Amino acid sequence: MFCGHFGRCGGCTYDIPYEEELRGKEAGVLEMFSRAGINTGEYLGAVPAPNAQEYRNKMEFAFGDSGKDSGLCLGVRKRRSFYEVADARTCTLVDSDFRKIAACVCDYFADAGETFFHRRRHTGSLRHLIIRKGYFTGEILVNIVTTPALSAPLAPLVETLTRPELAGRVAGILHTVNSSVADAIVCDRMDVLHGNSFFHDRLLGLSFKISAFSFFQTNSAAAELLYTAAADFAGSSTGTVFDLYCGTGTIAQIVAAKAGKVVGVESVAEAVDSARENAAANKISNVCFITGDVLKVLDELDDHPDTVILDPPRSGVVPKALAKIVLARPSNIVYVSCKPSSLVRDLQTLTQQGYRVEATKLVDLFPRTAHIEAVCLLRQV
Predict the structure, then answer these.
(1) Beta-carbon-side half-sphere exposure of residue 5 (alpha carbons within 13 Å)
(2) pLDDT of res. 122
(3) What are the residues facing 85 on neighbouring strands?
(4) What pLDDT is attached to residue 55?
(5) For residues 239 and 265, what is the distance between their CA atoms, to the nearest angstrom?
(6) DSSP secondary structure string for all residues of 346-357
(7) Are 46 and 372 in contact (CB under 8 A)?
(8) What are 247-262's pLDDT values in tens digits?
(9) Beta strand pairing status for 307-310 and 287-291?
(10) pLDDT value at position 164?
């Protein structure tokens, strides 16, 4: 057993050799394709993650206890439990800096007499600790999430966290106030206690500024492999590429070097602001980003796409949006999926509407979990 909390903690699904885990996930995806009658085209295999442990660049730890009368604990929520958590000090999905920071924060609040937020009684102040780290830069962003009832001063904790005892460098320490009674991370107010409200990481030679709540792939090293596959499938063209559901514009900026023009569409305004800022910092001038729902924005665009890149949420592409993409008749569609079952469903629609799957590659971004990413290239028949 690689972790003493396995089976109780909600973080990991597998406790078997990684090679066996990857074969199982690969077989599951290929079975989905087969059952749906979808040809994979040229199958390029399942690419393993560069690291099977300590790969996560973001972790949302919860405050709670480890059992009745155990005292304050900070870690990953246990399965089927409201309050019990598996201690973060032994989590093997994150690197040693995360474990050191979590231990420091938990010990400080325990000594100060603070208690975790009780979801039924609505008492206590401590909710979550979010740690993010640039895999390639070493920059760390620490976000302490509490209710307004927090009474312990944070200045001594900040002083401790900024001592040079970490492999990385603390770029910012934040305090997020969340007064919601729901067990969700909601930002009513954010205070910058130290440094910045953002950090930086790099992917494939490009720099990305990442804010506290903005999306960025959780496994940076494996994300490079995923985005390289997507860029290879997109190929080179002097034409226009649509990057739909573009998030902070990572893929759009990566494929821009081999495209005439790239148009990114994303519904989250903060993500679009980050995409524009990062593109300017990377001196990429042939990309533009539009805030809006893909379904509506497609009606407003004058450009005709030669290639469409789809990187939708886990639920896949909304059927009406998929129909509009088909009407645009791009020569190529590159579909990046974090949920293969949604991918297979959408591929059934696309293959019925005049597209053929030319190639498929799997990339594992989440070792020890059941998730695996898939990338497909489709061409107009």
Answers:
(1) 21
(2) 86
(3) 77
(4) 96
(5) 17
(6) HHHHHHHTTEEE
(7) yes
(8) 999 999 999 999 999 9
(9) unpaired
(10) 80
Please give the structure tokens belonging to residue 35: 């059952």
Local structure of residue 256 (DSSP, 8 states): G
Residue 5: per-residue pLDDT: 67
Looking at residue 238, what is its pLDDT?
87
Q: Say what the pLDDT of residue 70 is.
A: 73
Count of CB atoms within 10 A of residue 288's CB?
16
Q: What is the pLDDT of residues 140-159, one digit of tens each?
A: 999 999 999 999 999 999 99
Contact 293, 267 (CB under 8 A): yes
DSSP secondary structure code for residue 118 in this structure: P
Could you tell me which residues come within 8 angstroms of residue 111 by beta carbon, excluding any fewer than 6 positions away?
Answer: none
For the chain, helix, strand, coil in percent to 5 are: 30, 30, 40
C-alpha distances in Å from residue 170, one per residue of 133, 152, 156, 193? 9, 21, 15, 12
Quick check: 175 and 194 in contact, CB under 8 A? no
Q: Write out the two tokens for 62.
A: 């919860």
How many CB atoms within 10 Å of residue 234?
A: 24
Whether 138 shows a pLDDT value over 60: the answer reads yes
pTM: 0.93
Contact (CB, 8 A) for 221 and 364: no
Q: What is the largest CA-CA distance in the chain?
A: 67
Contacts of residue 196, Cβ cutoff 8 Å, sequence gap at least 6: 141, 171, 172
Backbone φ/ψ region at 41: left (φ over 0), alpha (ψ -120 to 50), beta? left
Residue (of 297, 216, 277) closest to 251 by Cα position: 216
Which tokens hold the place of 18? 């990684």
HSE toward the beta carbon, residue 365, CA cutoff 13 A = 23
| Structure token pair of residue 245 | 């559901």
* Interatomic CA distance for residues 124 and 115, integer angstroms: 5
Closest alpha carbon to 5 in 68, 67, 59: 67
**Token digits of residue 37:** 């009658």
CA distance 11 to 98: 15
Which residues are tagged catalytic?
Answer: 338
Amino acid, res. 3? C
- What pLDDT, on the 0 to 100 scale, is given for residue 353? 95
- pLDDT band for 4, please (50, 70, 90 cuts): low
Q: What pLDDT digit, counting tens, does each position of 101-111 carry? A: 999 999 999 99
